[in-house]
């Protein structure tokens, strides 16, 4: 038997593994990324203290506030002088 072939039975499902570590598995369409953020130290500490879902909401609200969340139609932008 190849090494590690019993690992899925011992480890459990993704849901069981996530519950063991106190996290929620990603839903379909969700993703996670490691990114570097350049900001004042106090803001970074507050951002890191948030739960992952709250961090996602902060990013969503921030992009919407900056007008970067809306998808623009390239054909419309090319025709605008």
From TrEMBL:
It comes from the Bacteria. This is Uncharacterized protein. It comes from Allomeiothermus silvanus (strain ATCC 700542 / DSM 9946 / NBRC 106475 / NCIMB 13440 / VI-R2) (Thermus silvanus).
């Amino acid at each position: 038997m190849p090494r590690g072939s019993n690992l899925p039975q011992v480890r459990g499902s993704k849901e069981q593994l996530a519950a063991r570590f106190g996290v929620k598995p990603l839903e379909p369409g969700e993703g996670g990324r490691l990114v570097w953020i350049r900001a004042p130290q106090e803001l970074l500490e507050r951002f890191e203290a948030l739960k992952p879902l709250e961090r996602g909401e902060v990013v969503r609200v921030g992009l919407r506030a900056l007008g970067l969340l809306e998808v623009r139609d390239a054909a419309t932008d090319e025709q605008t002088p």
